[in-house]
Design a protein that fits this description.
By secondary structure, this protein is α/β, with parallel strands linked by helices. The chain has nine helices and ten strands. Strands 1-8-2-7-9-10-3-6-4-5 form a ten-stranded mixed β-sheet, with helices on both faces. Strand 9 and strand 10 form a beta hairpin.
């Protein structure tokens, strides 16, 4: 299957199939939110939009990057989200890179959001439905984040039928990335919004057996799991 890797700013025309990759941490967090019972995730363009959506819809929750902020119910940390009870809830997510990338390809016929924890399910969905060509949107560091590049390349190999592709070399790259180092430093310095388990949780290959598909729903971009749930 034809594949290409681009940064958000390099997108150009709308792709037919987009796989938006954010390993540390948006789409690891999203997967954990679904595993903890969330029904859907609405991708917001700004923190202000996230809060406005939450305030206008009773029962919705809002999640953001960085430290806690008044009005937000959670932060973008898998180590913190994994213990939350999100059963039946709608979560509005705004992050620095992942949600930006997904919204940038909102008009694509098929948009998947991915990280290592859903790598296999993402590849299986694309293989089963015969979609292509695939554009991987590498969200971190203007398309240069090595954890996202490594994950995209790993998923790409599995799309091509290499289900036994060794994950270790790709995980080593992700573990050595600037994003991983920043998270480790954040824990060491006691930053709020970072958990000591975040890096390890982001590097669990195939932790979940569902893929995550984003589609327009009226004026919103909504992410939902497709496939079997596990990990509660």
């Amino acid at each position: 299957m034809d594949q290409r890797l681009v940064g958000i700013g390099e997108l150009g025309e709308v792709p037919r199939v987009a796989v938006v990759v954010d390993v540390m941490r948006a789409f690891t967090v999203a997967a954990w939110a679904f595993a903890r019972g969330a029904e859907r995730i609405v991708l917001a363009s700004s923190e202000e939009e996230a809060l406005a959506l939450k305030e206008s819809r009773p029962g919705w929750l809002a999640l953001k990057d960085g430290p806690p902020r008044a009005g937000f119910d959670a932060v973008n940390s898998p180590g913190l989200v994994k213990s939350a009870d999100l059963s039946g809830r709608t979560v509005v997510q705004k992050t620095t890179a992942g949600t930006v990338g997904a919204l940038a390809v909102a008009d694509a016929p098929l948009v998947l959001c991915a990280s290592f924890v859903v790598a296999g399910a993402t590849a299986r969905l694309l293989r089963a439905e015969g979609h292509g060509p695939v554009t991987f949107v590498v969200t971190g560091e203007e398309g240069r984040a090595d954890e996202d590049l490594a994950c995209a390349e790993y998923i790409g190999r599995r799309i091509d039928g290499e289900d036994d592709a060794e994950a270790a070399p790709y995980l080593r790259r992700a573990r050595a990335s600037r994003a991983a180092a920043d998270l480790v430093d954040g824990v060491r310095l006691g930053y709020r919004g970072v958990h000591r388990d975040d890096v390890e949780l982001c590097l669990e290959v195939d932790r979940f057996s569902f893929a995550m598909v984003a589609r327009r729903d009226a004026s919103l971009m909504v992410l939902r799991p497709v496939g079997e749930h596990d990990g509660r």
